[in-house]
Amino acid sequence: MRLSRCLIPTLKETPAEAQIASHRLMLRAGLVRQTAAGIYAWLPAGLRVLNNIARIVREEQDAIGAQELLMPTIQPAELWRESGRYDGYGKEMLRIRDRHDRELLYGPTNEEMITDIFRQSVRSYRELPQSVYHIQWKFRDEVRPRFGVMRGREFLMKDAYSFDLDHAGAVRSYRQMMLAYMRTFQRMGLKAIPMQAETGPIGGDLSHEFIILAPTGESQVFYDAAFEAIDYSGGNFDHASDSDLARFTALMTSHYAATDEKHDATAFQRVPEADRREGRGIEVGHIFYFGTKYSAAMGFAVAGPDGAPLHPEMGSYGIGVSRLVGGIIEASHDAQGIIWPDSVAPFRAVILNLKPGDAVCDRACDELYERLGTGVLYDDRAERAGVKFADADLMGHPWQIIVGPRGAAAGRVELKRRASGERADLSLDEALARLG
Ligand code: 5CA
Questions:
Q1: Cα-Cα end-to-end distance for the chain
Q2: Closest-CA residue to 124 (of 300, 310, 295, 302)
Q3: 316 CB under 6 A from ligand 1?
Q4: pLDDT (tens digit, 0 to 9) for every residue of the chain, 436 residues total?
Q5: For ligand 1, atom 24, which residue shows the shortest CA distance?
Q6: What distance in angstroms lies between residue 108's CA and the mean position of ligand 1's atoms?
Q7: Would you say the CB of residue 155 lies under 6 angstroms from ligand 1?
Q8: Any atom of ligand 1 within 6 Å of the Cβ of 324
Q9: What domains sit in the chain, N to C, each tagged with a CATH number?
Q10: How far apart (Å, rounded) are the C-alpha atoms in residues 95 and 97?
């Protein structure tokens, strides 16, 4: 895309309303604009990041056999009366009446709706286990929306639901999902740590939060650095192998990790001092096992092997897709701006034409732009070089290809890696080869 024709409204000044780095940088880099308290429009570059994050989440859900579907944002109040959560959810739930005076709500989560869908469709134990997920907008009327997309009112969530015949099956689904989460965050360049958590309004007796470290996190966390060294990729753990899952679970539970609510100072002292990590944490995911809580309350039973009705055991599994955009920036930025990991960057590279209108510069840039194909941004604006450098650092493209008149005349460009600041003077062909 040519930057001169893009809706990427970067800002030089720091917006006064933004208290944390990711919020400031998302506004300054032209990723989002607020339209109402806690509600954001995703501008083209922001949407590209959001879609890249959603793609990684989707690939890792698909990889463990979860099926993608799409449930609506608007739900009938009736379903939530069946589970008993309609009144309990309180003011966080946005309640709506339609023209026939029927009560609706904008979904804050989907346990009731998915249980209803399974109740209508799945009749026999032979059809289970199954897991499903969707990536859909949620609304929670938070008292204090803040920190931009980190605590929004409207936000994008991946929520998955598992249905199993017995406790052992449900635990297996839970562990597979935990493995998928660690892989998902690893691919985004994040060090996410699973921590035992309270189950809150979702209910159940087993729950983990996935936390990344950032100074602006909402809770204090403590963990063993051993987590950061684990490689969760497919070669290391096969999600379909029970022994791999057991080895993975042993690793996740043998190292110390806790939020302040569950912190045990004595146990933490047993972690070697050099490996003790402590700081503020952002919750980017949360998983729950709650057994038959919803299937029993909503009368969902399948015929078991002996013909007797059986309430499936369930779990639900959330990832804050839009929160992750802010979370990744919190974990990866410097004084100049965002440093996007390659896997989620809106553009993998930017071409900086330092002298638009100069025939040699234009020709070199056009050739690079054409050969690099889509996914690359071309800064063809009639702006000073300083403005282009500052904007490129602010927007955080992993690579900058800098084309100036003197270099271009000699067939050379400068390639800069945003993360390390490393620069190389290369021919066009060499620069293209480096970018793969
Ligand atoms: N039903 C369960 C699992 S699907 C559930 O709703 N869990 S949750 O409440 O913990 O939300 C899942 C994830 O959504 C959280 O870990 C967090 O990353 C994200 N999230 C929750 N509330 C917000 C919010 N107000 N703004 C942005 N992201 C949020």
A1: 19
A2: 302
A3: yes
A4: 999 999 999 999 989 889 999 999 999 999 999 999 999 999 999 999 999 999 999 999 999 999 999 999 999 999 999 999 999 999 999 999 999 999 999 999 999 999 999 999 999 999 999 999 999 999 999 999 999 999 999 999 999 999 999 999 999 999 999 999 999 999 999 999 999 877 666 666 689 999 998 888 888 999 999 999 999 988 899 999 999 999 999 999 889 999 988 899 999 999 999 999 999 999 999 999 999 999 999 999 999 999 999 999 999 999 999 999 999 999 999 999 999 999 999 999 999 999 999 999 999 999 999 999 989 999 999 999 999 999 999 999 999 999 999 999 999 999 999 999 999 999 999 999 999 8
A5: 151
A6: 9
A7: yes
A8: no
A9: 3-338 (3.30.930.10), 349-435 (3.40.50.800)
A10: 7
Centre of ligand 1 to C-alpha 151, Å, is 9
Residue 263 corresponds to which amino acid?
Answer: H
For residue 201, the CA-to-ligand 1 centroid distance in Å is 12
Residue nearest to atom 22 of ligand 1 (CA): 151
Separation between Cα atoms, residue 280 and residue 276, nearest integer Å: 14
What distance in Å separates the CA atoms of residue 357 and residue 403, rounded to the nearest whole number? 13
Q: Residue 125, by phi and psi: left (phi above 0), alpha (psi -120 to 50) or beta?
A: alpha
Q: What is the pTM for the complete model shown? A: 0.97
167-170: long-range pairs with CB below 8 Å, 24+: 167/291, 167/313, 169/128, 169/129, 169/313, 170/289, 170/291, 170/313, 170/314, 170/315
Does any ligand 1 atom lie closer than 6 A to the CB of residue 326?
Answer: no
The C-alpha angle 82, 114, 183, rounded to 5 degrees, equals 135
318 alpha carbon to ligand 1 midpoint, in Å? 6
Tell me the C-alpha distance between 262 and 256, whole Å.
11
283 lines ligand 1 (CB under 6 A): yes
Is the previous residue joined to 129 through a cis bond, with omega within 30 degrees of 0? Answer: yes
Inter-helix orientation angle 21-28/321-331, to 10°: 100
Closest to 21 measured CA to CA, from 367, 385, 329, 290: 329
